[in-house]
């Protein structure tokens, strides 16, 4: 008690002999130091986006019935393949700065986007950009589903191991399991099939099962593959969805000799389309889309975040949503929401906890596959 009493007496003497303004300065200094320390402790969670923190709540979502629920984003037109029917050809090497891309995706989330599909071009030509988009979409925007469409050639197991937790669906384009057919289509490095494309597809399917990613296949039915029976290979790959598209002409992209691609020589008749569909329709993962179903039912964004109208007639582009906002940009193109709903544009697109078990075309719970 004696020591405590002496300490109190000394403190009172010091207080009585020290000018009041010095005490005020001392108190303010302590307060400033405390606030600075609090700021330093939270600075590390700030993202590069203006005013956005990594741990902030995701943006509020609109309940607009015409909201852009599912968006297909082509961040780059660059591709290492030369598929003859491609309708989004390599006419520019431009890619948005990452922060601008994130800002655009946040605007889409605020407008009602629930699923983002990243396609191209070939997205895996820009792996760092792609990986950061995946992380941002899941950790910051909290999107229900994020998917990628790829030709598969540049995918490495390391990428899926590091980013698989942020990826719901990986779709691989595979139009044939015959080397000569792939060569005729142009599906290979610089258009030359090297025989490894099919082997790579099987490797990726296995990686997806290992890292908890839903594996999907996309096939374009054209003059070179319409009579191929893919039943055995599809069953072995066991994708949860197999999207089968009829070869499509898009005016302004792939319909003439002056274009990068001329898909007219790849077109098939309705009878040929029906023959391919009838051969594979028994597979539970089979999801066909003819030209009429595709036209106008997809929301497409180019490398400058402009909506693309690839329906009837010449292709049209909106202003960039970064300049005019999502709603105004959408009003500048035609999007058939009814056709989107009719083709099953919304499905169970978030990966389950145990993806890869009892699923896919090879069997399993069929009810789970009817997404």
TrEMBL record:
Q: Which residues are listed as membrane-spanning?
A: 20-36
Q: Where is the composition biased (Basic and acidic residues)?
A: 47-57
Region annotation (Disordered) maps to 47-66
Instruction: Identify the Pfam families for this entry.
Output: Radical_SAM (PF04055)
Keywords, comma-separated and alphabetical: 4Fe-4S, Antiviral defense, Iron, Iron-sulfur, Membrane, Metal-binding, Mitochondrion, S-adenosyl-L-methionine, Transmembrane, Transmembrane helix
Biological source species? Colletotrichum shisoi
| Co-factor(s) | [4Fe-4S] cluster
- The superkingdom listed in its UniProt entry is Eukaryota
Record SMART domains = Elp3 (SM00729)
Protein name, please? Radical S-adenosyl methionine domain-containing protein 2
Query: What GO terms in the biological process aspect are recorded for it?
Result: defense response to virus
Q: Which residues form a coiled coil?
A: none
Gene name, per UniProt, is RSAD2
Q: What Gene3D superfamilies does this protein map onto?
A: Aldolase class I (3.20.20.70)
Is the keyword Zinc assigned to this protein? no
Show the InterPro entries listed in the entry: Aldolase_TIM (IPR013785), Elp3/MiaA/NifB-like_rSAM (IPR006638), RSAD2/Viperin_antiviral (IPR051196), rSAM (IPR007197), rSAM_sf (IPR058240)
- Mention one GO molecular function: metal ion binding
Please report the stretch or stretches of sequence annotated as the Radical SAM core domain: 65-286
């Amino acid at each position: 008690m004696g020591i405590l009493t002496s300490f109190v007496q000394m403190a009172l003497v010091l207080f009585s002999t020290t000018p009041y303004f010095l005490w005020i300065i001392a108190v303010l200094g302590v307060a400033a130091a405390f606030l600075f320390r609090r700021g330093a402790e939270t600075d590390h969670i700030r993202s590069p986006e203006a005013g956005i923190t990594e741990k902030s709540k995701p943006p509020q979502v609109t309940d607009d019935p015409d909201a852009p629920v599912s968006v297909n984003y082509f961040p780059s037109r660059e591709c290492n393949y030369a598929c003859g029917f491609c309708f989004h050809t390599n006419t520019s090497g431009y890619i948005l700065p990452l922060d601008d891309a994130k800002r655009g995706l946040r605007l889409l989330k605020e407008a009602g986007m629930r699923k983002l599909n990243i396609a191209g071009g070939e997205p895996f030509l820009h792996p760092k950009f792609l990986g950061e988009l995946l992380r941002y979409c899941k950790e910051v925007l909290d999107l229900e589903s994020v998917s990628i469409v790829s030709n598969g050639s540049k995918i490495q197991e390391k990428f899926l191991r590091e980013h698989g937790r942020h990826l719901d669906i990986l779709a691989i384009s595979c139009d044939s399991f015959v080397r000569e057919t792939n060569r005729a289509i142009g599906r290979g490095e610089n258009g030359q099939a090297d025989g490894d494309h099919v082997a790579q597809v099987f490797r990726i399917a296995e990686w997806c099962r290992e890292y908890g990613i839903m594996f999907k296949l996309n096939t374009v039915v054209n003059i070179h593959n319409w009579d191929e029976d893919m039943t055995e290979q599809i069953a072995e790959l066991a994708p949860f969805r197999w999207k089968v598209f009829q070869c499509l002409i898009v005016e302004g992209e792939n319909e003439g000799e002056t274009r990068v691609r001329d898909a007219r020589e790849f077109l098939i008749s309705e009878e040929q389309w029906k023959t391919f569909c009838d051969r594979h329709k028994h597979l539970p993962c089979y999801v066909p889309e003819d030209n009429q179903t595709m036209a106008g039912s997809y929301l497409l964004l180019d490398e400058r975040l402009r909506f693309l109208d690839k329906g009837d007639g010449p292709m049209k582009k909106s202003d960039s949503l970064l300049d005019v906002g999502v709603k105004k940009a959408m009003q500048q193109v035609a999007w058939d929401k009814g056709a989107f709903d009719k083709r099953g544009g919304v499905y169970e697109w978030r990966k389950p906890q145990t993806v890869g078990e009892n699923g896919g075309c090879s069997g399993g719970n069929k009810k789970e596959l009817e997404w």
